[in-house]
Amino acid sequence: MPTSHDLSGLMKFLSRDEWRECFEEVFNEHFGRVLDGEGDFEDLAEVLGEHWTNALWGCAFEDFLTQDFEGEPSNMVDEYLKRRGWKESAQARAYIAALRTSVMSLYEVSDVVPGISFVARDLIRGGEPLTVSEGTATKTLKQWDRLAARIVPVMGKAVMAGGVLPFTPKATEILFDGLRGLFGKRNAKKLPAIKDDELQAAAFMFTLSWLFDTLGRVAGPQLQNTDGDEITFHDVRFPLAPGVAADDIAVRLNSIPAFSQADTKFWNWLEETPKGGNQKNAEAPAIDTTMDNGSLVLGNVELKGRFLHLSANSAPRAIRGTALVQQALGHLVRTPLTKITTIEQMKAERPSKGAQRSRSDIPPEIAKQAIREHLDRHYRETLDQPVKMLGNKTPRQAAKTAAGRQKVAEWLKYMENQTAKQPDPSHSMATYSFEWMWKELGVLDLRR
């Protein structure tokens, strides 16, 4: 038996001659500017994967179902329900009819109940949040996710249509800028009031905004440090020259102002935070570590047997660190060898569930507490550091104005959302509570 979301009958109806050209018109509106005559839609699957190309096609198809064309019949849903509706269940007919008048919008997700429902707040049209009945998607949704979707009423419940695209802050910015240009002033701070029929006609902008953002991220580095460098882990290994003792190495390393000795064989390579905070080049949050005094950790140096190891999380830092070590140690070390590990390689090297893992002498509850304390210190320092998403103002500064409070709320939601997406949901990072930051910045009333 077909389910209420089964549109296979409608899709077969699409092959009829009177609808084929109409669909091509809508399809080109969604993808023509991306393909630009230089590729086929199928080529996107090689870049994005089959799942996302299916989702994109679904967005265009659902948009097509809402449109009226010249001549009779003017809408495919009306014609299909008239000629083939008797083949569908009452629930399926209600769902198809709801798609006929549906509107694509951008929603913010909260209060997720896995396998049952989530709450959706319309970020474009406003209004009261909706409780959406949804089984599959709620198993992966996280608090404050943003989704471009059609939410339609079916037999007393709000349900989500199949064409759904997750939006990053960057994709949201692209979309809102386009909507302001189309319906208001491009440089305005707020979206203008947009009627349903106007938003319905702008459905293609959701697809294009998602594509421009996603294709840009696929082409560029996925993870960065605060210098804006792509994350690649470098282990530079310097063999000690014959007859050189550990004490000889320690004396030379301690002469480097940027090296801070933590114990007899370990040094942190630091870059002092400039007065007024670190001006970050990467989108926050970025991958890096800071000391209690706010100093940014650029890398580490450690003596292991007859080798000195320099570790850094990017190629530029590894080059800088290597130069510092060679300048200070000179003939005490030989030519170094470098091992480079990418994020993808690290994932591939993770042991399987059945594999034996190294045992830690630190009890799990103590380790989690230490991580939480480290995160507390890190985020407390962040409250007084410039953040790119806040116009390079500190969170405390931004929270002093009405417009700034809205930006702070968006920033906190982004932090919570990205943290919740940690691969291991039981990890202390994934379960970290940001509620104290909302309270301290005085924006708890915007956490909705």
Layout of strands and helices, then pairs:
Layout: H1 8-13, H2 17-35, H3 41-48, H4 50-66, H5 76-84, H6 90-100, E1 105-113, E2 117-122, E3 130-133, E4 146-149, E5 151-154, E6 157-160, E7 165-166, H7 169-183, H8 196-201, H9 203-219, E8 232-239, H10 246-253, E9 259-263, E10 266-271, E11 289-290, E12 296-304, E13 307-312, H11 315-329, E14 337-342, H12 343-349, H13 364-382, H14 395-398, H15 402-420, H16 435-440
Parallel strand pairs: 3-6
Antiparallel strand pairs: 1-2, 1-4, 2-3, 4-7, 5-6, 8-13, 8-14, 9-10, 10-12, 11-12, 12-13
Low-confidence stretches: 274-285, 352-360
Taking the sheet with the most strands, its summary is: 7 strands, mixed
Number of helices: 16
Distance between the termini: 39 Å
For the secondary structure, the number of strands is 14
Q: In percent terms, what proportion of residues is strand?
A: 15-25%
Shape: elongated
Order of strands, widest sheet? 5-6-3-2-1-4-7
Main structural class:
alpha+beta
Mean pLDDT level: 83
Helix amount: 40-55%
Tell me the Rg in angstroms. 27 Å
Secondary-structure element pattern, one letter each: HHHHHHEEEEEEEHHHEHEEEEEHEHHHHH
Concise synopsis of the structure shown:
This protein is α+β, with helices and mostly antiparallel strands and 448 residues long.
Give a description of the structure.
This protein is α+β, with helices and mostly antiparallel strands and 448 residues long. It contains 16 helices and 14 strands. It has helices at residues 8-13, 17-35, 41-48, 50-66, 76-84, 90-100, 169-183, 196-201, 203-219, 246-253, 315-329, 343-349, 364-382, 395-398, 402-420, 435-440; strands at 105-113, 117-122, 130-133, 146-149, 151-154, 157-160, 165-166, 232-239, 259-263, 266-271, 289-290, 296-304, 307-312, 337-342. A hairpin with a 3-residue loop joins strand 1 (105-113) and strand 2 (117-122). Helix 2 packs across helix 4 and helix 7 packs antiparallel against helix 9. The chain is elongated, with a radius of gyration of 27 Å. Mean pLDDT is 83; it is low at 274-285 and 352-360.
